[in-house]
Each structure stands twice: as C-alpha cells, then as structure tokens.
Write a structure and sequence with these properties.
The chain is built from four helices and 24 strands. By secondary structure, it is an alpha+beta fold. The chain has four domains: about 40-60 and about 345-415, conserved putative lor/sdh protein from methanococcus maripaludis s2 fold (Beta Barrel), CATH 2.40.420.20; about 60-70 and about 265-340, Efflux pump adaptor protein, beta barrel domain (Elongation Factor Tu (Ef-tu), domain 3, Beta Barrel), CATH 2.40.30; about 75-105 and about 230-260, Beta Barrel (OB fold (Dihydrolipoamide Acetyltransferase, E2P)); about 110-230. Mean pLDDT is about 85; it is low at about 30-35.
Length: about 425
C-alpha cells in the first residue's frame, strides 16, 4: 500500500529566491529613502569647532610678511679705483660720520696730484713776476707824468712872464710866440700822459683779473685733485653700522665698485611683499598692524614699488611709534594691512569650512544643540580673523567652522557628546 508523501512548501531553491528578492527590495527602499529624505551623520562635538556669529567692528585686511630693515641705507662705492692697502675696521662695526673704513692706493692719481701742484706753483711764480713788471711799469709812467707836469708848470710860468714883458715892449713878439707854443705843447703832453696813466691802470686791472681767475681755476683743479686723492681713504658718510663690507688687503677695486653699506640705526622700516591682486588697492598712507611681545604696533605705508616680480610687489612701511628693543634688523613680521575703514558688520570666524562650501552655505547648529543643518549664506569681505556675513545668519547663531572634508555631502549632522 502506497503511503502519500507530504509536499514541502519551501525548498532551498525557493528560499534563496526569497532572500535575493528581499535584498533587492531593501536596496530599492534604501535608494528611495536616500533620494527623498535628508542624509544624516553622527559627529562628536569634540571633533568639530563651533563658533557664535557676532555683531561687531570689522575692517578688511590682508596678511603679509615683512622684513625689518634700517630706516636708511647708504651704499659705499669706490669713488676712485685702487688697491686695498689698509682696513681700519671690520664688517659690523658701528661707525661715526667721517671715521675711516679702508685705504686704497692709486699711483697714477697721486702722480697727477704732484703734477697739478707743480703747475700751480709755476703759475703763481709767473703771476708774481708779471705783477712786479706791471708795478715797475706803472712807477715809470708815474715818473714820466711827473716830468710832464713839471714841464707844463715851467712852460706856463715862462709864457705868463713873456706875455707881461711883451705888453711892456720888453721882448720881441717872436719870444712870446715861442713861449706860447711850448706851453701848448706841454699841455698836450699832459693830456696824453693822463690818458696813458688811465689806460695803464685799466690794463693792470684787466691783467690782474685774468691772472687771478687763471690762478683760481688752477687752484680749484688742484683742490679737486686733492679731494680725489683723499677719496682713496673711504670714510663713513653718516653715523651707523657698517655691513656687507667686501674688501680684502691687496684686492683691486674699480671706480664705482660697491664696497659695502652703512645702515642708519636711528630707526627701522619694514619692507613687505604683497600679491599683485591687491596692487590697485594699496597706496601710501595706508596702515597695517602686528603684535609683538604682547604689544601692538602700527605701521604706515610710505612708498609703493609698482614693479611686479613673480606675482608680487613691495611696499616700505614705517613705525608710527617708538620701536621696542626686541625688534632687530632682518626679523620677519606678520602684518595685517588694512584695506578699508572700520565698520559694523555681522561676523563669523574664519575656518576650514570655506574650502568645501566656497562661502555659499554653512552648518548651523539647532537651538537645542543636538543637530546642525545646512543654511545658505552670502559672505562679503574678510580679514585675518573673520568673514563678513551679508545674509543667511543672525547674531547669536551657532555655526560649525571647522573643515567639512568628511561630510561635505551630508545634509544634517547629529551632534554627539
């Protein structure tokens, strides 16, 4: 007798089909939920930075690096070429104006000085000889004038006497005429002698002036030559510190070659490099600030170098108050250069969130502090600490400012303690 077998409702094949179907259904449900609902991510509060949005004074600025330099640098160039014979000081010495630094030798220049001095002495001797001759000539002409004057007086006396005698018929008319002619002749001689003296005086003055001018020019040339020889001793032009001295005993230096520099120690300036993007917004009179040893310092832009090199240009800034002794030449400073005046604005602290959001949105913390969700925002200007918020947030709002690298695509964050 056959025994009927009970037919199984589920076998292994059917079970596998059911499992696969359920998995596919779960996947479909997950995709539907993901596409229609907000994605969430649990985040530990200690791993993020939460800051409050505040209302306060805002000034747009940019951070730049500046190097401390002396307020003035005087370059030392060789005014005359020569061989380094002696060094009086070493690099780094503090100098007073006029202190010798080094001595050069130049045989050709020293020989030229000797020749120039000889010319001056020869010219002076010639001038003395000419002056003596002119003086003697003047004396001779004065003597001649005296003789003519005496002859005129005598001729007048004889003429007056003969005229009286003739009136008394004591002498012949011929004698009177002879005396009169002699008198007129002596008067002509006197007039000529006076003219000769005047001309002689003018000639002496002219020759003396020319000789004096010639002597003065020669003296100036000699003085110039002496200064050129004196320039072989290089001296400090101002009070300051000698730096970058490049000269060794026996080394030859050409005229105009750089020997070193003098840094004036009465103050400092700061030379800063700024990105060319800001060249149209930088001008003299702008200020910048930095903190050093718990003290704030203000700098003012005094000069803008408009030449752009490797995408950057330079400015010179000076301190607006006395500099602390801790600041030294060559020191690098982090400076905040102001690009605008202070104004009231809504502020959010700077953070890594900007790299993923571009300033278009931010995670805002809910009032209960348990979640954070995306909100659209608009940012304006920035400085080294804050962004200016133009829309999307209110004073007192809590926002996440740390990096969004791990959850930039998440719609909502669940904040865990």
């Amino acid at each position: 007798m056959d025994i009927p077998l009970e037919k199984k409702r589920f076998n292994a094949k059917k079970i596998s089909y059911i499992v696969i179907g359920l998995a596919i259904l779960a996947l479909i449900l997950f995709v539907l939920i993901s596409s229609t609902g907000a994605s969430k991510l649990n985040v530990q509060k200690e791993r993020i930075s939460i800051h409050k949005v505040t209302q306060g004074a805002f000034q747009e600025n940019i951070p730049v690096n500046g190097i401390v330099l002396p307020i003035t640098t005087i370059y030392l160039d060789a005014l005359e070429g020569g061989r380094v014979e002696e060094k009086f000081v070493e690099d780094g010495a503090v100098m007073k104006k006029g202190d010798p630094i080094l001595r050069l030798s130049n045989t050709d220049l020293e020989l030229s000085l000797v020749n120039q001095e000889t010319q001056v002495y020869n010219l002076l001797t010639q001038m003395q000889i000419s002056q003596n001759a002119a003086r003697q000539n003047t004396i001779n002409r004065i003597n001649q004038f005296t003789d003519v004057e005496n002859s005129l007086i005598e001729a007048k006396r004889v003429y007056d006497l003969n005229k009286k005698l003739y009136d008394k018929d004591a002498i012949a008319r011929q004698e009177l005429i002879q005396a009169e002619n002699n008198y007129n002749y002596q008067k002509e001689r006197m007039t000529l002698s006076k003219q000769i003296l005047v001309q002689d005086s003018l000639s002496v003055k002219l020759e003396s002036g020319q000789a004096s001018n010639s002597y003065q020019r020669t003296q100036n040339a000699l003085e110039l030559m002496r200064r050129k020889v004196a320039d072989l001793v290089v001296r400090a032009p101002v009070d300051g510190q000698l730096t970058s001295l490049d000269a060794e005993i026996g080394q030859s230096k050409n005229k105009g070659e750089r020997l070193g520099q003098i840094d004036v120690l009465s103050g400092f300036k700061v030379r800063a490099d700024i990105d060319e993007h800001y060249i149209s917004r930088i001008y003299t009179g702008q200020t910048g600030g930095f903190d050093y040893n718990n003290e704030s310092y203000i700098l003012e832009i005094k000069k803008v170098y408009t030449q752009v090199t490797n995408g950057r240009f330079q400015v010179d800034m000076q301190f607006k108050k006395e500099v602390t002794e801790g600041i030294r030449r060559g020191q690098t400073l982090q400076i905040r250069v102001a690009l605008s005046d202070e104004k009231e604005a809504l502020l959010v602290p700077k953070g890594g969130f900007i790299q993923k959001t571009g300033g278009n949105w931010i995670f805002k913390v809910s009032e209960d502090g348990n979640t954070a969700y995306r909100v659209d925002i608009t940012l304006g200007s920035q400085n080294t600490e804050y962004y200016e918020v133009l829309s999307g947030l209110q004073p007192g709002d809590q926002v996440i400012t740390s990096s969004y690298d791990n959850y930039a695509d998440i719609q909502e964050l669940v904040l865990k303690e």
